[in-house]
Amino acid sequence: MAGEERAVHGASDEGSPASMTALLLAKAHYPVTTLGPGRRAGIWTQGCTLHCPGCLSRDTWEADPATAIPVPAVLGWLESLDQVEGVTISGGEPFQQLEALRELLLGIRAWAPPTVDILVYSGYALSRLRGSAQSREVLALCDAVVTGPYIDRLNSPDSGHPWRGSINQRIIAVSELGEKRYGDAEGGETRPHMQISVEGDRIYYIGIPRRGDMERLTERLSLSGVHGGEVSWRP
Prior knowledge:
Strand order of the largest sheet: 3-1-2-4-5-6-7
Distance between the termini: 16 Å
Number of strands: 9
Largest sheet: 7 strands, mixed
Structural class: alpha/beta
CATH topology: TIM Barrel
Shape: globular
CATH architecture: Alpha-Beta Barrel
Strand content: 15-25%
Helix content: 10-25%
Radius of gyration: 17 Å
Order of helices and strands: EEEHEHEHHEEHEEH
Number of domains: 1
Number of helices: 6
């Protein structure tokens, strides 16, 4: 689900070559502790044509050119962080920006120590991700991927692992590090959990909620005197 923050959008691209690859970026946040093991940097891409019914991140659907940011600016933000144990990339649909995603993953590989894992969420099935040479190259740069469309009726309190939204989705280890950290993820019994972050007049929920969780969270906040307006998970 969508997280925060938008500060990285302010990074300057003055002097950057006109051909520099840009990523449509929805949000970036650190630390993220609900979408993979350890303290993680979270990156959410902007733009998705899959439009899964019940998606909680409808605000990331539009491929808005105004959200474009040079990939090196995102890498610069990552390099400014301390004690990063992993990077989680979600969306939107990251695999709909293959060139930018490839450049981002290559940059993370060049910067990060070998103990930092990369987890990427995609609404595509694994067979689709393996369907082209370019997509396979990008897939090989990940340590693990969560694949498959979100299906709302398959999201329930007993949906299994907290890192997937519905039981049809698969957590696939790609690398040796991915196998170590995610190889037994399908059998995980940990209950889902979420982060709540406040920035100005906005509240961000980061994690994988179960059906009804958002309404319960909103109600609890309301009882505490925090009243929400527009939300990303409703049309």
